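Example S7 (structure tokens).
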């Protein structure tokens, strides 16, 4: 995928955040790593979602410096850049303040794995990362420290919101959508009583099946 195509993809994926009610006003962002690994495309700061176009997307290096584009990059650019620098397997990062997941983040409480859909997608609980102020590497450091070696592609940054990672920008968006979905369901379940945990062996089985068997597979 070359830069023009990646700019189109990242621009289009922002519409999915709106479609699934994960963002309000201009908050939230999607980024995607470019081929070669030393550049990424991200949303410009403070631009309305209905004004986003491929041409409006900005290109930054892995230090977060603007390389190409007519707008200032997202205020979360440093967090995305740090994540890409320290997690070479990551090719997409998403940030939202989606309502239910952010409510768990406000409590600094991990979302327990009490749904098979969570075991499938997250391989266990959705963890909480540390409180960090925006504008430097601190959020990125929290993302990397929390998710390194963890199955979950999502982290709830304390008092802030959701960051997700993926092997593509689309995968990171999917993780953000699924994170909000299970955050809402587990919240509702707790209103009815204490949700029942899934045994670890069953979580492992469900995660392996979903990651390696579920869906369409390319023929050998």
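Recovered sequence:
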């Amino acid at each position: 995928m070359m830069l023009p195509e990646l700019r189109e993809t990242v621009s289009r994926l922002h519409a999915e955040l709106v479609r699934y009610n994960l963002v309000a006003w201009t908050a939230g962002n999607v980024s995607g790593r470019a081929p070669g690994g030393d550049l990424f495309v991200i949303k410009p700061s403070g631009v309305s979602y209905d004004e986003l176009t491929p041409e409006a997307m900005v290109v930054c290096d892995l230090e977060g410096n603007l390389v190409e584009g007519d707008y200032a990059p997202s205020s979360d650019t440093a967090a995305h850049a740090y994540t890409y620098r320290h997690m070479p397997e990551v090719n997409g990062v998403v940030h939202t303040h989606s309502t239910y997941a952010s409510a768990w983040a406000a409590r600094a409480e991990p979302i327990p794995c009490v749904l098979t859909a969570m075991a499938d997608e997250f391989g266990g609980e959705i963890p909480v990362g540390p409180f960090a102020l925006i504008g430097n590497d601190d959020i990125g450091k929290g993302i990397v420290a929390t998710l390194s070696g963890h199955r979950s592609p999502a982290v709830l940054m304390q008092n802030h919101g959701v960051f997700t990672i993926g092997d593509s920008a689309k995968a990171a968006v999917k993780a953000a959508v699924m994170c909000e979905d299970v955050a809402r369901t587990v919240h509702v379940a707790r209103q009815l009583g204490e949700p029942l945990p899934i045994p670890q062996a069953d979580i492992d089985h469900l995660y392996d099946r979903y990651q390696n068997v579920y869906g369409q597979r390319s023929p050998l």
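Notes on this example. The chain has seven helices and eight strands.
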